[in-house]
Amino acid sequence: MSALSIEGVSHAYGATQAVSGLSLAVAPGEVVCLLGPSGCGKSTVLRLAAGLEEVQSGRIAINEVLVGAPNVHVPPESRNVGLVFQDFALFPHLSICNNVGFGLNARDPAVRRERILAALGDVGLAHAEQAFPHMLSGGEQQRVALARALAPRPRLVLLDEPFSGLDTRLREQVRDVTLEALRKSGTATLMVTHDAEEAMFMADRIAVMRAGRIVQAGTPIDLYRHPSSMFVAAFFGEINRLPGVAGNGKVGTLFGPVPTDLPDGTRAEVVIRPEALGVALEGEGGAGTVPAHVVSAHPLGRSTRLVLALDDGSRLKARIWGLYHPAIGAPVMLALDHRQAFVFRTD
Amino acid sequence: MTDLVQPSQGAIRRPLVDRWTLATAAIAAVIAVPIVVVLSYLAVPTGDIWQHLASTVLPRYVANTVWLMTGVGVGTLVIGAGTAWLVTLHRFPGRDLFQWLLLLPMAVPGYIIAYTYGGLMDFAGPVQSGLRAYFGWSRRDYWFPEIRSLGGAITVMTLVLYPYVYLLARAAFTEQSVCVLEASRTLGAGPWRRFLRVGLPLARPAIAAGVALALMETLNDLGTVQHFAVDTFTTGIFRTWLGLGELAAAAQLAAILLLFVIALLLFERWSRGDARYHQTSGRYRQLPSLRLRGIRAGLTVVACSLPVLLGFLVPVGVLVWWAIRSEALGFDARFLQLTLHSVSLGALAAVLAVVLSLILAYGARLRPTPVVRGFVRLASIGYAVPGAVIAVGVMLPFAAIDRTIDAWARASFGVSTGLILSGTVVAVTFAYLVRFLAISFNAAEASLAKVGRSMDDAGRVLGRRPLEILATIHLPLLRPSLLAAALLVFVDVIKELPATLILRPFNFDTLAIYAYDLARDERLAEVAAPALAILAAGLGPVILLARSIGRSRPGHSA
Fold it and tell me: Of A94, A201, B155, B204, which one has the greatest count of Cβ atoms within 10 A?
């Protein structure tokens, strides 16, 4: 049983191929994030699921009912899905109450009102029902948009970059409220974002998209720990790339050999996340540590970002917890957490 | 793949022919009929009458029309662009007032200013009588410019048409980024050089569009040229049709006039050109206005006052004077009936135009296909076509349809159906729609474009069908602009003369027709009542424009 199943869907706008043979399923109650750079086709997937675009090839089903295929198009108004827009798309001429009630079929005013207040209550905005959209802050508008999408009790909710219109400080707070409301409603959720941290926060599963295809899908920890490609590794944060050649099932680096499945002689790159590097003062390093010196240090509050130069001239970025401000040029010892080093074939 | 439940058939709506495409196509096809009919007469074999026209009057029509267009084009360009430059980029006493005062002549239809100046400046008029009385001259003692001439027609039409150029030029100047102008200033350009080398070229597309609009109105004019005895295509069409009864020849004249219009449209498109006039800087601030003092301020005030004075205050003053002087004010039962006719025609056309525009604009929004876009463009071409041409194009097919129905009814039932379409309110209303649909369509399209696409999507996902979305989301949001659009069409219908003259039902006179008839009979003083009523109506759109002027500037502190 899937709340949403997308099977082999391709979609083109004119000559531009937006989605190519994409398959994805969302189980009831599950939150799935489509993660990818802008223009990778992730919003098109959302619009196809909502019925705002017609399926050109492949098929889409909601709750095991076929809703989209070539020559089958259940229009969006008959799909019972909720959609939260990037710009929220609140109706400016309607009060919050009427915005949230827009999708409700119930005619009985008492029932309507109860449903509206319940939906607003779930996002902590019951007091704002008489206000108009322009009177609310961005974060409040986003919550109204969520309440409006959830009020008709859809089996599937689609979120299109729902937090990108909010400033960073507000984002975390609204994210909490959103996730809680989604969990409470028990609806299946497909969310689109280009922000890996946001995806990791929200998702049970993440599907990373590139150029219209899913390149890797799995739990957030899976993707972070075991990226299958340079693209996925890079998408989850800054990386260091060390060139090398595979031989005897490993690639040699200054930090010692890193295991790989690549055949001998393959040109490869070892990818190291900045947080996989440990920095110790000179003389404190143990076995496998490498001497380096500090090029720059930027204390960022929770962490410090360092650029370090190795003796062979190559530079590495490191991120360590807490505030740390060594002198520029200070000698340090670097250690690598080998679980966070990945080897990929050089493209 | 798992087995999926097929959706219920009711949930799948995929009609064979898309309804919105069909609707836009139907509207466009019907609206295009008059233009197609007239153009087809270019290919119709011509009889003797055409030979006769071509050898006698045609050269005069062409010459007068070309001179009229040249004169009005230059006149509106100088006055419109000049005053716009003065009020947008300079500070002088009364500038804020002049910003909207300069729009006032727009409220005066060409034929009404012609009647007032005709009465004011002719031999028996107060100006010449006054000169003779003061200097003791008699008829042969002095030279005075003949107002009833090509020059007179150019002058009065320029005086009421320059606001088209003024409006668009003003908008273009205010949208010019302050950085560009300040850059030219730091590069050492003086005020004249800034105007000629930076301001004017940047505003060129807008100014050309304004001149093109003014020229379309020039071609549309009947009342002025007829009153001033200047033979143009429009008067020629009337004379050939109503005087000689030669409908085919009139249609051929109309077709040639249409070629002028097409040339104008091409000119307007060409003037937009390939050059990019997008601003390179998005920074808008209060425009750096140059403070004028002393003699320069005085000259500027004079320059801005003259068009208002001559294009609005003088004609209005003359009308008021006539109204006061005539014993019977003219506001009688007949006047009431005429007003009722004008208002009901205007209201009918306005409502229909707004409804059709909304269908077209929403259809184009729902189905942004090249086909629909083409139909929509076709449906809004009529704004450029002179009323006389449209009238000919409406009359010919409607008369043919009436004849066919009548012949069929007589053959089948032995009864005559008479005129069903031609000579009824249907014909004249249809002509109004052909001519004015573009006005309401542009308004509907522009305000619809301001409503984000996600509004439609949100409505769909929340369970509403497109028509329900139009009713529950778009209509409430568009209401102010649609009302404004309806007002524009309403007023244009009330002012409209040539099409009304040809197509109105028998004995169904309007205020414009009444004024025209009185002027033809040289009962100028009595023109005052209907003319003042038309003028009052014409002030409506001017007030709308004046109100929007204050908030038209992007980034302007609201």
Answer: B155
Q: Closest approach of chain A CAs to the CA of B555, in angstroms? A: 19
Question: pLDDT tens digits, residue range B36-77?
Answer: 999 888 877 666 777 777 788 888 999 999 999 999 999 999
DSSP string, B494-534: HH--HHHHHHSPTT---HHHHHHHHHHTT-HHHHHHHHHHH
Q: Is the complex ipTM more than 0.90?
A: no
Same domain, A99 and A45: yes
- For strand A258-259 and strand A290-299, is the pairing parallel, antiparallel, or unpaired? unpaired
- Who wins on pLDDT, B125 or B499? B499
Helices (H) and strands (E) in chain A, counts: 8, 21
Sign of the four-CA dihedral B320, B322, B324, B329 = negative
Q: How many CB atoms lie within 10 A of CB B257?
A: 25
pTM over 0.80: yes
Contacts of A149 in chain B (CB under 8 A): 461
Residue in chain B nearest A2 by alpha carbon? B2
CATH number for the domain harbouring residue B325: 1.10.3720.10
Where residue A211 sits, what CATH number does that domain have? Answer: 3.40.50.300
Judged by CB atoms closer than 8 Å, whether chains meet at B14 and A71 is answered as yes
- Read off the DSSP letter of residue A41: S
For A54, name the nearest residue in chain B, comparing CA atoms only.
B14
Contact partners, residue A145, CB within 8 Å, separation at least 6:
A84, A85, A88, A89, A90, A162
CATH number of the structural domain spanning residue A304: 2.40.50.140
Each residue of B170-183: b (16+ CB within 10 Å) or e? bbbbbbbbbebbee
- Shared domain check, A259 and A213: no
DSSP state of B5: B
- Residue A322: helix, strand or coil by DSSP? coil
> Residues 6 or more apart from B344 whose CB is under 8 A from it?
none
Query: Using a CB cutoff of 8 Å and minimum separation of 24, what contacts does A287-290 make?
Result: A288/A255, A288/A256, A288/A335, A288/A336, A289/A333, A289/A334, A289/A335, A290/A254, A290/A255, A290/A333, A290/A334, A290/A335
- Compute CA distances B446 → B213, B442, B468, whole Å: 19, 6, 21
Which has the closest alpha carbon to B214: B120, B148, B311? B311
